[in-house]
């Protein structure tokens, strides 16, 4: 788990640095296998949009009940719920 957090921190820092320099956003990572994490956020749609735009993840699934909504995104071996 600690390795995944470190990887995500490095990816996010690289993205921020690249955007500050006006660089075109390329895939943030390659070759990740079996990396998964789940988050609880206040605005799932805004978060899904951010992960799609910044990390190039695609929405695989959306589901909603009376109490919760779940959005699953993936790309390059990374899965975010």
Could you describe the 3D structure shown?
The structure is a single chain. The two termini are 15 Å apart. Helix content is 38%, strand content 25%. It has helices at residues 2-20, 44-55; strands spanning 35-37, 58-64, 69-75, 78-80. It has one domain (2-80). The protein is globular, with a radius of gyration of 13 Å. The protein has a four-stranded mixed β-sheet, with helices on one face. With 81 residues, it is an alpha+beta fold. It has two helices and four strands; from the N terminus they run αβαβββ. β2 (58-64) and β3 (69-75) form a beta hairpin.
Compute the CA-based radius of gyration: 13 Å
Mean pLDDT: 77
The domain tally reads 1
Order of helices and strands: HEHEEE
Q: Oligomeric status of the shown chains?
A: single chain
Please give the alpha-carbon distance between the first and last residues. Answer: 15 Å
What about the largest sheet?
4 strands, mixed
Helix content: 25-40%
Spans where pLDDT lies below 50 across 5 or more residues: none
Record field, number of beta strands = 4
Strand order of the largest sheet: 1-4-3-2
Counted by DSSP, the helix tally is 2
Principal-axes shape call: globular
- The structure class reads alpha+beta
What fraction strand?
15-25%
How would you describe this structure in keywords?
globular, four-stranded mixed sheet, 81 residues, alpha+beta, 38% helix
Tell me briefly what this model is.
With 81 residues, the chain is an alpha+beta fold. The chain contains two helices and four strands.
């Amino acid at each position: 788990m600690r390795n995944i957090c470190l990887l995500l921190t490095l990816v996010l820092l690289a993205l921020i640095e690249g955007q500050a320099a006006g660089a075109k956003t390329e895939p943030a990572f390659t070759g990740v296998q079996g990396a998964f994490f789940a988050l609880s956020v206040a605005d799932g749609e805004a978060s899904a949009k951010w992960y799609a735009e910044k990390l190039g993840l695609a929405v695989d699934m959306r589901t909603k009940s009376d109490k919760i909504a779940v959005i699953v995104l993936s790309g390059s071996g990374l899965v975010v719920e």
